[in-house]
Sequence to fold (625 residues):
Amino acid sequence: MELQGKSVSQGVAIGRLSVYAKKDNVVKRERIEDTEAEIKRFAEARTKAIEQLKGLYEKALKEVGEEGAMLFESHQLMVEDLDFIEGAENIINQEKVNAEYAVARTGDTLAEIFANMEGNEYMQARAADIKDVSNRIVSVLQGNDDSGLNATEPMILLADDLAPSETVQLDKSLVLSFVTRGGSSNSHTAILARTMNIPSLITVDFPDDVDGKMGIVDGFEGKLIVDPDEALIESYKKRQEKEAEKRRMLQELKGKETVTKDGKSIHLYANIGGVKDVADVLENDAEGVGLFRSEFVYLESDDFPSEEQQFKAYRTVAEGLAGKKVIIRTLDIGADKQVDYLNLGNEENPALGYRAIRICLDQVDIFKTQLRAILRASYYGTISIMFPMIISVDEVKKIKKILAEVKEELDEASVPYKDVEIGIMVETPAAVLMSEELAQEVDFFSIGTNDLTQYTLAIDRQNAKLESINDPHHPAVLRAIQMTIENAHKGGAWCGICGELGADTTLTETFLRMGIDELSVSPSKILSVRDAVRNLDLSK
Amino acid sequence: MKEFKYTITDPEGIHARPAGLFVKAAAAVPCKVTIEKEGKEVDAKRILGVMSLGVKQGEEITLKTDGDGEDDAMETLKKFLQENL
Fold:
């Protein structure tokens, strides 16, 4: 039997399936006479629940660190929350019912409010926290102990959903994988699985009778295989070994230089799309950020993001990288990414339309706000600025003039900033053809291979029918890259690649032979590219 | 009564962790503290209330302090917002 779900943590697990039946507290509605005594029982149960949560906080602190442990501190606050307490007390007083019932109903009502917060996945996931808190108090009231899950041998754990307190009480060394019917990629279990580096699936609709059977979790394809045959188990074991070997090898490459056997070194940077990616960058040991897509500050806003808002985001990343280089690309939006407040309208050919630097040079106010935010943030790290969609020297001259004006304004206001390197994306055939002249104007080039391929081959990359001929290895694209690198060096600029092609290890040798100075790839590809570089010998 | 408008810059909005810290800070001041978003006003000393506003990045909230020590309370809480959210 093969069941499809969604993977929230990669990897392969093979083992016995264990279905966790939630210990549901059966709560009866009972009439009581002495409401005061009931309210006192409720207060005592809260005190005990808080003691339990303090214990769990300490345990989580040791196991998963402060970030994970904080959760139990917010649970404590929920136990002490007046909306919750007053809600339950009102029910006790008005309906003359037992505390168990009052707590369970209040918990349900509050959880409902969060579950109904449309469009806020994070808060929706918090409904589980509230239920968890009210269950805890009910358990205390009923005199149930806080037992959690019982496991004696390594197993793949299947459940509807797991509450944070249930997972913390678990002996983690026995869990090979988490598979849940519900859950979300933001749920506590998903986060925990990623921290533990074990595969995890959500939204798998498994029947209860799989309990005790053998199973395979394929965290790459999002599959749960029940009762696999020997041959399948064997092939997954091989996959598991390969993954483990790869991980071990990649871990060894952390902290190592990105240098070939014959001593040619390049810079290996990461591409990021927001502040939250910084952890990935550091974890994978990138030497800096080669492409920080600033679009997210525009896409996540309902109105023009303020200078302050942008400044904070850029500063956070600059500080997070602690002095390593961060290349921020200015606004790169067109009609294909609709942002209401920009009023871009629809276009026949958005890829060839009013977009990126064309908007910035037309609506200079938007551009200046961003440049000011970037320059201010430059004071807190090592920032470079990169401009997208350039087609002429004239554009670069205009940009430099605007940048000089912004600097002057900052000087007048005595706002500190550092000198920043400036560079351009080379992603249009025009920029390639003009690269010799452009190199005189800037400090660096970064080749955007996705767009360069699209524009060079005249193939719309969104068109599925053309996928078979959309070849980024096309000699025309490679020749364009070569020409760009050579002309960059002639003009005294350095040259990198930040498109997807940069992570293509079948081309790493080609790029190095062409003289590339930098590759910027997604954080998860950093170590495999470093491995490819370190295995090269260009003298041969 | 003191008022202060603030636009949340934290990419995750007012999520559980800072909400917890903020509620703790609000609970420690003597006066009444509320947060308002789009006409909905909640007691800032109650975590479920604060979280139920579901404040996201880029959204504006109004912080109000009212009563004994409202000036000091505003200073403390304003600083907390600016530094953490």
